[in-house]
Design brief:
With 257 residues, this protein is of the alpha+beta class. 35% of the residues lie in helices and 17% in strands.
């Protein structure tokens, strides 16, 4: 029986070229890191110009464009390896293509740092995930300059091995976090107590219940936690606005003609 993969740390690095990202991702997968524990982010993926060709009308109807993210697979490229690929608008940075768990973290504002307030942006979001502020600022600057961010969630006893792999393939500004990226729930959400603190703290009591219902429904349909989390956040952003404390609590009023 294969040993269960246990992610405990997150390695983050900058790569200058998309082909380096492709190489690192494939090498990590070959060395045993499941693709659902790898995230990528950048503004200049070659696939970005072709994204519109892979969005179905159903994706748009589900609210992807209205929430600032586009769901759906991108084929024929590095991004086809990832579920939950999205186009996110990040304050002070602009549109960013992201794939993997980081997409849900940014889309869901699990950090509250993407609300558009003064100083908000990618650096603020990364800092709230436990990254040193100076390192987070470097990552934002380099993504803005057209480079790529890669994050791999790995077992603690293999973090050194994977760090060397990433470095040998061109990874720069490497940082190791002593934790993984926040997930909405450990599998299916059986109640509010299952919601991660990062998410629970940004939802009103009713919004928490709506999030869980949307998440579980999407998880039943897709069997994909990243997509389920994205869909749950899309539904929250359709139904609620944030209050002055960054909590999704103000239920939107439908305007009838």
């Amino acid at each position: 029986m294969a040993e269960e993969y246990k992610a405990e740390r997150t390695i983050t690095a900058v790569l200058k070229e998309e082909k380096q990202v492709d190489n690192v991702v494939r090498r990590l997968i070959d060395r045993g890191v499941p693709q659902e524990y790898i995230s990528v982010m950048g503004q200049n993926f070659q696939s970005q110009t072709r994204i519109s060709g892979f969005i179905s009308k159903k994706d748009v109807v589900l609210g992807g464009l209205r929430t600032g993210a586009v769901f759906g697979s991108l084929f024929g490229s590095l991004l086809s390896l990832f579920t939950g690929v999205g186009v996110l608008f990040i304050p002070f940075l602009g549109s960013v293509v992201a794939g993997g768990p980081i997409t849900s973290v940014l889309l869901g504002a699990a950090s509250g740092a993407l609300a558009g307030s003064a100083g908000a942006g990618l650096a603020s979001a990364l800092a709230t995930l436990g990254m040193p502020e100076e390192k987070a600022a470097i990552y934002e600057t380099r993504v803005k300059a057209g480079e790529f961010l890669l994050m791999a969630e790995v077992p603690a006893n293999k973090s050194g091995e994977y760090q060397l792999l990433i470095e040998s393939a061109g990874g720069e500004e490497i940082h190791v976090n002593e934790s993984t990226l926040p997930r909405a729930c450990p599998g299916k959400c059986n109640g509010v107590e299952d919601l991660s603190p990062e998410i629970r703290s940004h939802l009103s009591e009713q919004a928490q219940k709506d999030f869980i219902q949307s998440y579980n429904t999407a998880l039943d349909e897709t069997d994909d936690e990243t997509k389920a989390e994205q869909q749950a956040w899309a539904n929250i952003k359709d139904k609620y606005d944030e209050d002055e404390n960054g909590i999704w609590s103000k239920e939107k009023v439908e305007v009838k003609n």
